[in-house]
Amino acid sequence: LENGEIQAVGSDHAQTTVDVRIVAATNRNLHELVAAGRFREDLLYRLRVIHLHVPALRERREDIRPLVEYFVKRATRRATGFSEEAIRALERHRWPGNVRELQNVVEQAMWLSPSTVIEVDHLPEPVRAVGDAIVMSRERRRQVADDLYQALVKGGYTFWEHIYPLFLARDITRHDLRELMRRGLTVTRGNYRALLKLFGMSSREYKRFLNFLAAHDCRVDFREFRTGSPDSRRRSRTVLLPMPAGPNASESATTSVREEDAQGRAGSPPIGPAA
Fold first, then answer.
1. What is the pLDDT of residues 37-83, one digit of tens each?
2. What is the pTM of this model?
3. Cβ atoms within 10 Å of 191's Cβ, excluding its own
4. Residue 232 neighbours by CB under 8 Å, 6+ apart
5. Contacts of 92 (CB under 8 A, 6+ apart)
């Protein structure tokens, strides 16, 4: 990067010099990664000579219309275009997948539409439903995980069909997925299996789901989402308390503690993995 030299592995000297321009892109905050010791600071400043920040598509809605027109022109199936109502629906959507998601939606609508003019009804259900729900709920900027969760629960998104491709394409990060898991586990009270129905998965995909989260370090500890006080989560145990002298004193103490513990556990969630 500094000298433009290429040196083969095992060689003592550079074999050739190249004249190239390095263009690097990321959706991570590299300064935060440097502070956390997960990215080399010297590499950052070797790469970051001219920095161009491209905001998320939801932060530049004025670009949606020209992008749609561009995708329509380059499509193999010719269409007149999108109606004004359809354009407004696209502009209301939050686009967690940014420009790539917009391109996919435009191409899908063009191929599935029976007419040359794309109407709102020709758009995918998540775009029609989630657009209004997300924009109207709060005016302040929301995290990507909020948008993804609303799309899964209310907008017709499914985990494998929509979230999984966004993650593989690096349009969303591990942090986004962890935050999405947190929102789901808050609803299911730490039960990972209950996330299957919430996120549009079948019961047969439970192991695949857990393996995916583990492989990409996106799993969240379920225990922090369990409800109930610490006393209500105690296991049944025998404790001998000092009691007045009598033939049945020890037996009475043991029985009273067991009964209290059983009453405390009533209504509390089970202890152990959320399987």
1. 888 999 998 888 898 988 889 889 999 999 999 998 888 776 678 99
2. 0.46
3. 20
4. 264, 265, 267, 268
5. 131, 132, 135
